[in-house]
Amino acid sequence: MILVARDVIASYPGAEPVLKRASCRLSPGIRLALLGANGSGKTTLLRCLSGAHKPDSGEIALAGRPLKHDRAGLREHRRRVQLVLQDPDDQLFSADVTQDVAFGPLNLGLTEDEARRRVAEALDLLGITHLADRPTHQLSYGERKRVTIAGAVAMRPDVLLLDEPTAGLDPSGVEETRSALARLTGQGTTIVLATHDVDFALSWADEAAVVAGGQVHQGPIAEVLADTDLVSRAHLRQPWQLQLAIALGLESRPRTMTEVLEAIGPSHRPTA
Ligand SMILES: Nc1ncnc2c1ncn2[C@@H]1O[C@H](COP(=O)(O)OP(=O)(O)OP(=O)(O)O)[C@@H](O)[C@H]1O
């Protein structure tokens, strides 16, 4: 396992714990969708996994080594595990895009040349090379979101934790994000993505981790989302692909339009 949360209890001052012995496991290269109702604790879990929030008890382990929340431990952890926050304005600080994306690599102590290479690579991967010289405050919301992901990608992390990267994007922005994620997966990056978009989650992820009642329920995504009791407890809804499959009495659990049509077979397809 590349990253593990084991029996994590996490709280904020003066309140009941948000996570109550929550556990999840990330195998290398996996695409994990983190699902759950508003306020269920998805961001808190991402912050624990990234080292930004210290659990009251339990353990976060990277490649088998428990995270120590001291300066050296956190520095090494953050080099390999990058968290991208939901609101890009919480993460963009520099005057222009290149400076912003270069901030992390320069902070790692890399040379300016190497940082420049990392920036070019990250902008290319996110499909935003054309934004390199733009002032960050002039960018659209969707552009700012992609710049913050590029900033994390420039660190070449083993694990990328993304808090609602598709929220507020138009359909083409969602598809561009999906393409960038596919390129990252192709490079072997492990990705955790918190989202309320169950249709996107089913078509993108290998596994789902549903946060409900302070605990995490993890498994293959189609199995997890077919669990009607869990889906209702977590205030989710079933993705349209599964609703359709169940309504049509299909035995398979298709995840995309193509898979739905294949499962229906030629005799059931509407004729033109
Ligand atoms: N900094 C904080 N101080 C106090 N309470 C907090 C803080 N951050 C989050 N909480 C509380 O912890 C609980 C879990 O919040 P969290 O942001 O982890 O949920 P979430 O599942 O990511 O929600 P959403 O889907 O709305 O983004 C909520 O009740 C929230 O009010």
TrEMBL record:
SUPFAM superfamilies: P-loop containing nucleoside triphosphate hydrolases. One of its GO terms (cellular component) is ATP-binding cassette (ABC) transporter complex. Its main location: membrane. Keywords: ATP-binding, Cell membrane, Membrane, Nucleotide-binding, Translocase, Transport. The keyword Transport applies. It comes from the Bacteria. GO terms for biological process: cobalt ion transport. GO terms for molecular function: ATP binding; ATP hydrolysis activity; ATPase-coupled transmembrane transporter activity. It is a peripheral membrane protein. InterPro entries: AAA+_ATPase, ABC_transporter-like_ATP-bd, ABC_transporter-like_CS, ABC_transpr_CbiO/EcfA_su, Co_trans_ATP-bd, ECF_ABC_transporter_ATP-bd, P-loop_NTPase. It is found in: Cell membrane. Residues 3-238 form the ABC transporter domain. The keyword Secreted does not apply. Belongs to the ABC transporter superfamily. Probably part of an ABC transporter complex. Responsible for energy coupling to the transport system. Part of an ABC transporter complex. Responsible for energy coupling to the transport system. PANTHER family: ENERGY-COUPLING FACTOR TRANSPORTER ATP-BINDING PROTEIN ECFA1, HEAVY METAL TRANSPORTER. This is ABC transporter ATP-binding protein. It comes from Brooklawnia propionicigenes.
